Please model this.
Amino acid sequence: MSATLSPVRPRRGRPYGSWLRGAAITVVSLVFALPVVWMFAAAFKTNVQVTDPSVGLWFTPTLDNFRAVVEAGQIVRSMGNSLLVGVVSTVLSAVIAVPAAWAVGRFSMRRTGSVILVARIVPAISLLVPWYYLFARMGLVGSYTVLILSHMFVSVPLIMWVMISFFAGLPVELEEAARTDGLSAFGAFWRISLPLAAPGTATASLLAFVFSWNNFMFALVFSDDRTQTVPVTLFNFISYASTDWGGLMAAASLITVPVVLAAVLGQKYLVAGLTSGATKG
Model:
């Protein structure tokens, strides 16, 4: 007796679900992109056009705002200061935080992890007064050193908190095999775990750099005219009587470019780390 097999009917797709999902993604993307589009558009408007609701995206663009911002020179110097503080603080934080995160994640130091969490959630504004008193007595206020140290206070716990779970998820057998081949514990970390953790390190470092680039509070308190960073420079476009909206939007557009470039380069590095990290060393 032969069994009769009924043909399998292909399942119908869900056009309505896909349409709704695409519509939701589009709406959310427009909501988040609208302020950025308005900022870039306002950078090419005059102050009168910026404050005129009837002027939308159809107008005659002008480069006067960018010309005035660049010729003033303050935004260029501030971008250099922010780049210096951001890169140095991120590199030093990664050098300290990544090995510490490996030790905490590999050896299950729960108390240390709790301390890191506490340091991560403590409001930095509560430390500004004692910090200012301490650094003023040391003669560091207004220097790059105090900005780098203050940013590292947030960057080190941030990188550690991201990397602890990353190292904890790596197979411990790889390090055990390396130890069997004669490597020390740090050698196994350096040659095995660290290359595998390249995607996580890139992500955590990028987050730390973006925080340093956008930080306003530390720079406002600890910097001076020579070490002023871009958030403080943007604040200078706002005065008691009026606001230079055109210059403000032009400067904001300029300082957005390095962050976007860092995100693009970081994304490429993440892909390279995912494909080649396991074969390094």
Observations:
- The longest helix spans residues 74-107.
